[in-house]
Design brief:
It is rod-shaped, with a radius of gyration of 57 Å. Helix 1 runs antiparallel to helix 2. It starts with 7 loop residues before the first strand and ends with a helix. It has one domain. Strands 1-2 form a two-stranded antiparallel ribbon. The protein contains 2 helices and 2 strands; from the N terminus they run E-E-H-H. A hairpin with a 2-residue loop joins strand 1 and strand 2. It is mainly alpha-helical. This is ABC transmembrane type-1 domain-containing protein. Keywords: Membrane, Transmembrane, Transmembrane helix.
Length: 157
């Protein structure tokens, strides 16, 4: 609270301002003004520090979130690409193996058929050319050869 100090005092010559009172009052007013300015400055500094620290924290959070999202997206893309490549490689290998196995089986069966046909033709020609007793021997040999060929084909397959 402000102290009531009379600016003028009574003297034998009338009301006169006291210089010391005026100076004292002016000094107190200047001191109050300085205190107000200091308080204002402190408030502004505190507000700036708090706001700037919050902004920095928010920026750091945003940067961390963006980095995490980018890393997750890159990892997901890499995993998807690796899975797709592995699936494609497995499919290609399976297709190649199936084609090779089928081709091998077809080749073996074709060779066996050709051998059987050749053996049958040879047996027929031999049976026509030789007497009856020898023909049964030729047929037995041909049957043994055919059985061995069929067993070989089955073993390979």
């Amino acid at each position: 609270m402000e102290e009531k100090i009379p600016i003028k005092s009574r003297t034998p010559h009338g009301l006169v301002e006291r210089e010391s009172i005026v100076k004292h009052r002016a000094e107190r007013e200047r001191e109050r003004e300085r205190e107000r300015e200091k308080r204002c400055t402190r408030v502004v500094v505190v507000v700036v520090v708090v706001v700037s620290s919050r902004v920095v924290v928010l920026l750091l959070v945003v940067v961390v979130v963006v980095v995490v999202v980018v890393v997750v997206v890159v990892v997901v893309v890499v995993v998807v690409v690796v899975v797709v490549v592995v699936v494609v490689v497995v499919v290609v290998v399976v297709v190649v193996v199936v084609v090779v196995v089928v081709a091998a089986v077809v080749a073996i069966v074709a060779a066996a058929v050709v051998v059987v046909v050749v053996v049958v033709v040879v047996v027929a020609v031999a049976a026509a050319a030789v007497p009856r007793a020898s023909a049964s021997c030729v047929v037995a040999v041909v049957v043994v050869v055919v059985v061995v060929l069929v067993a070989a084909v089955v073993a390979v397959v």
